[in-house]
Amino acid sequence: MTFAIVAITADDQPRETKYSLPDNVIDFRTLPLMPRPRRLRMGRPKIEGAAYGDALTQLWSSGDPNAFDTLCDLALTPVGRELPASPWHASQPDHADLVSSAVAWDAIKNCTRRLAPEASFSDAFWAWRTLVGGLISVLTAPVPEARIYHAISTGYAGLYAARAARQMNAQTVITEHGIYTNERRIDLVVADWLEDRVHKGFALEDTRREVRDLWKDMFDAFARVAYARADRITTLYSANQSFQRALGAKEDRMAVIPNGIMLEKFAGLERPSNKPRPVVGLIGRVVPIKDIEACIRTAAVIRDTVPDVEVLIIGPTDEDPIYFASCQRRVLELGLENTVRFTGKLNIFEILPSLDVMLLTSISEAQPLVLLEAGAAGIPCVATDVGSCREILEGATGETPSLGRGGLIAPPMDPAALGAAVIRLLSDEKLRTTCGANLRARVEQRYSSEISSGAYAAMYRELAA
After folding, report:
1. Hey, how many other C-beta atoms are within 10 angstroms of the C-beta on 157?
2. 387-413, pLDDT tens digit by residue?
3. Strands 279-283, 254-256: parallel, antiparallel or unpaired by DSSP?
4. CB 444 within 8 A of CB 263
5. Which residues, 6+ apart, have CB-to-CB distance to 158 below 8 Å?
């Protein structure tokens, strides 16, 4: 099998390649959602403006796959241009024709009037420009030839796969780690760049629409189209499937394929003897969704019972400098300078042997690889009850044979419960050892890279046939 990779980026700024590509990757390209603006070509594009606006509104309001097909045809069908004293010049519409032209202006007014008449028009304008601009980029970007198009989320990736498969008469697969619509909804609820101008108070029956609603609706619509057009829909654990069903995923196309790790890389890791202090580690980016502040408050709870504990926060700190600064202040406020240490990025194979307990405090996860890596190293874990954390630590329903728990689960954003769980493991060596062995056995049985890649290979062979 050979692969072509299409990396979706926010814009067309050059980016550094972070990975060495395998030999079977024969094509790599980027797809910028917001290309550099260009001046409109001369003349008004001969696009059926009413059909364009109607299709966008229908897609936005209901995720209608037929409306998506109409947009595909409008974006890819050569059109003429009205030019003074000149014949029409046929060409494919470009990004500016569909986003920045008079036709686009009519579509913006059409969509806003029908979808959110109470919303601020200026806010709706910029939402339209961003969301529809990305959609048009996906519909007009070049497509590599393939027999299967595999998207690793819904959103713009799922739309690109649906459009590519339709254009090339090919098959489509969607694999979701986290559910894309849920993650975008979290982002939009807390987004401080969106201002609510329609004040509904506590009225539950108020049907007025706000721009924030437009954003959420469009991502839901993208998911509905992607699911409707997918030949296979996989995710990492069964609980995710309820969200997929809610947006139209068909039961006979759904499957669970867990992620896997290369177990051989963890062979031979030796735990140091006579460590000066117990060590708890959190491996993750210092960003709000990982709830590092909860980790810091959990460290304060642990320290009250285990005074010499060291809590390492292992991961990059530069993604959200403001949040990192607030976490540093919280360490000082709680007097944890000698307890909590931000290490930055480290080689996990060097740090894992020194950990007694792995801690995960995220408010949203899919299938965290850090729990699998900890399990491969025989380290018990304490994790919030999000994503597949419970399934990893306690086993899936009907696990045969039952391997026992590999750690403890606590509610999200509950430092007292998280701290109590860590203290329980640190205080009971037998429990700690048993949980580590159970988790290692579960990872070996279910979460190896051979199992995962074998499942995908079988799916590719079936679809290609």
Report:
1. 23
2. 999 999 999 888 888 999 999 999 999
3. unpaired
4. yes
5. 151, 174, 180, 222, 223, 225, 226, 227, 230
